[in-house]
Design a protein that fits this description.
- Among the domains are: 2-141, Serine Threonine Protein Phosphatase 5, Tetratricopeptide repeat (Alpha Horseshoe), CATH 1.25.40; 474-565, Tetratricopeptide repeat domain (Serine Threonine Protein Phosphatase 5, Tetratricopeptide repeat, Alpha Horseshoe).
- The relative contact order is 0.05.
- Helices cover 58% and strands 1% of the residues.
- A two-stranded antiparallel sheet has the order 1-2.
- The chain has helices spanning 2-15, 19-32, 37-43, 50-63, 68-76, 96-99, 110-129, 209-219, 222-235, 240-252, 256-269, 274-287, 294-303, 308-320, 324-337, 342-354, 358-371, 376-389, 392-405, 410-422, 427-440, 445-458, 461-474, 479-491, 495-508, 512-528, 532-543, 552-565; strands at residues 579-580, 605-606.
- Helix 16 runs parallel beside helix 18 (376-389) and helix 22 runs parallel beside helix 24 (479-491).
- It is mostly helical and 624 residues long.
Length: 624
């Protein structure tokens, strides 16, 4: 079966001392089947560090607790105590100096170096005599960038029972890492190039050099590939595919100028050879990252509409140019050609996010992750998406893994710090992340903003002012930066500046929750300078907002302050008194011959009701 052949090639690579080749093949086998202990046993012989060997052996013992080779390896490595009942495996005598060399160990006593040198040789021999009984299973999987990325989600974590030797492997700032695994090439190479899969393997009966070059290509031996393909070109100068593979070899050897010449020669030989256009675009991008490669990628698709790699590279170009609508339409075409490609979902997630389709972006990123857990960009995407959704634990998890490999991404460090800031008891780790982000980009708005907020929460008012002042200047429309600066000024006892800044924050507020924050924190500042009248106004404004938008503790605090400051209305008693109105007035009249009748006023009595008088509320006027 194909997996048997791949394992055989891995074993041969180990025997030849080709550790990277063996590690690559074994990683592919493990991605397909992580439950085969023999894969893990062989992987333990080609990894670089003590921690990695221990991890691989623990995987073997987890799957086969009585595996003698793994148990012996743990004992010989000084990890497990000696076991008198464990007998060494019989091995054939070999010249160890030729078959195995200790390249490097990160740290630890010299005895561990010797032990693992012997252990590596032992594993090698045991593997060579065990070939006949290996029966692994294999399935097709995605492989990104020609590199291996081993992360915790790929493997089932096995808790270590022994104290591991300290290492100097680069790691993120979290004190309890979740990553244990073979050192991936992402940590060893500054840049990688993804070669186009073998596009055509035309028979070349005239020369064996072409066949040897293809074999070297599949084995990852690019110098031999170049040598053989140049020999083939001399014998068959009219073969476009030979020049194309010369270009591929040069690109893989980081010689883009020579690659460009070869790709041009391939196109000159056959204008309808699609991969040559794709290769030329890759070479030009390596020479000048700002060069417009759209024409070559488009031409590659015109010549061969089924060239998936050209479609994917064109989509990546559209994303970099922020043309998300065109990227999404191109994704529809690419998906028909490669429906299971994880890059399709990774690119769709990025385009959807920038188009405001948050839910769909998260769903697409998760699909990409499920299909291939080696695509580094997916970890960054998931980290930022979870950060936006408020799932800070998941955000920090994915961003930490991403930063293990992409250590110079200032934006990612800032986002990682923010995720830690939003979590409880992560102040020190968050500050380290912000410091790292600002080392890489001193103008990082996110890092300045959230480091300032971290200082604010820790009570370092002036330090918070320093960061938040810069953040506010970078984005004067940011409410959170404006309010944070106002709070920091208050904490630094710069009250007049703080009140002025609160006014600016109030003008930026667009929601009731933001207004509530302004009223609450400004009221606290007024109380610090004993301006109770102004504090009362802000508290009253706070209580007039919709109750669901503000914190319950703020509402109670405002109510208690108002009750304490406002005197309780009292009743002023009044004593009712009867007021007598004269009822009859006797007016003497002089008798006349024509008597006149005069109406006498009717007696009336007015009885007043008691009157309730309230004392007006007394408030202190705000100071100017």
């Amino acid at each position: 079966m194909a997996e048997d052949k791949m394992l055989q090639e891995a074993i041969e690579a180990v025997a030849k001392g080709q550790s990277e080749r063996a590690r690559d093949l074994l990683t592919r086998l493990l991605r397909a089947n992580q439950t085969n202990p023999k894969y893990w046993l062989w992987m333990s012989s080609v990894v670089d560090t003590t921690k990695e060997r221990v991890y691989c052996l623990q995987k073997v013992l987890h799957l086969e607790p009585e595996n003698r080779a793994a148990r012996l390896g743990m004992v010989m490595g000084g990890i497990s105590p000696p076991d008198d009942g464990l007998q060494p495996l019989p091995v054939a005598p070999r010249n160890w100096k030729e078959t195995y060399k200790v390249t490097s160990l990160e740290s630890g006593p010299k005895k561990y170096v010797r032990r693992f040198a012997y252990f590596g040789a032992f594993i090698l021999v045991f593997g060579l005599i065990s070939i006949g009984i290996l029966a692994p299973r294999m399935r097709t999987f995605g492989y990104f960038g020609g590199v291996q990325l081993t992360v915790t989600p790929i493997f089932e974590t096995v808790a270590a029972t022994a104290t591991l030797l300290p290492t100097n492997t680069p790691r993120a700032v979290t004190p309890t890492p979740t990553f244990i695994g073979p050192t991936p090439l992402w940590m060893l190479l500054e840049a990688t190039y993804t070669p186009t899969p073998i596009y055509v393997n035309t028979p070349h009966p005239v020369t064996e050099a072409y066949k040897a070059g293809i074999r070297a290509f599949t084995e990852g031996n690019y110098e031999e590939m170049l040598m053989f393909m140049e020999q083939a070109a001399q014998a068959e100068p009219d073969s476009a595919d030979i020049y194309y593979y010369i270009g591929e070899a040069n690109l893989l050897l980081e010689q883009p100028d020579e690659a460009l010449y070869a790709f041009d020669k391939s196109i000159e030989t056959n204008v309808n050879f699609a991969p040559a256009y794709f290769g030329r675009a890759s070479a030009m991008q390596a020479i000048d990252p700002d060069f417009d490669i759209e024409a070559d990628l488009t031409q590659a698709i015109v010549v061969d509409p089924a060239l998936v790699s050209a479609h994917l590279e064109l989509i990546a170009l559209y994303l970099s140019l922020e043309n998300y609508e065109l990227a999404l339409s191109s994704l529809e075409i690419a998906e028909e050609l490669a429906p299971e490609s994880p890059l399709i979902y990774a690119y769709r997630s990025q385009a959807l996010l920038q188009s405001g389709e948050f839910e769909l972006a998260l769903e697409a990123a998760q699909q990409a992750y499920d299909l291939d857990q080696t695509i580094l960009a997916v970890y960054e995407g998931l980290g930022n998406l979870y950060l936006m959704s408020g799932n800070f634990a998941q955000a920090s998890h994915f961003l930490e893994i991403y930063l293990r490999y992409e250590t110079k991404d200032a934006n990612a460090w800032a986002s990682y710090g923010r995720a830690l800031f939003e979590s409880d008891d992560q102040f020190d780790q968050a500050m380290q992340a912000f410091d790292r982000a600002l080392e890489l980009d001193e103008n990082s708005f996110t890092a300045l903003l959230y480091r300032g907020l971290s200082y604010l929460e820790a009570g370092h008012g002036q330090l918070a002012v320093n960061d938040l002042f810069l953040a506010r200047n970078f984005d004067r429309e940011s409410f959170i930066a404006s309010l944070g600066l106002a709070r920091a000024l208050s904490q630094a006892e710069r009250y007049e500046d703080a009140i002025s800044q609160f006014k600016g924050s109030e003008q930026l507020a667009v929601t009731e929750l933001q207004l509530a924050e302004v009223y609450y924190w400004r009221a606290n500042t007024f109380r610090l300078i004993e301006d109770r009248g102004s504090a009362l106004k802000d508290y009253q404004a706070l209580l007039e907002l919709t109750a669901e938008t503000i914190r319950e503790a703020w509402v109670k605090e405002a109510q208690q302050f108002i009750i304490k400051l406002t005197p309780t209305p009292t009743m002023t008693p009044t004593v009712p008194t009867a007021t007598l109105t004269p009822t009859i007035t006797a007016t003497p009249t002089v008798p006349t011959s024509t008597p006149t009748v005069t109406r006498t006023p009717t007696a009336t009595e007015v009885t007043p009701s008691p009157t309730k008088t309230s004392r007006p509320s007394q408030t202190t006027q705000p100071k100017d």
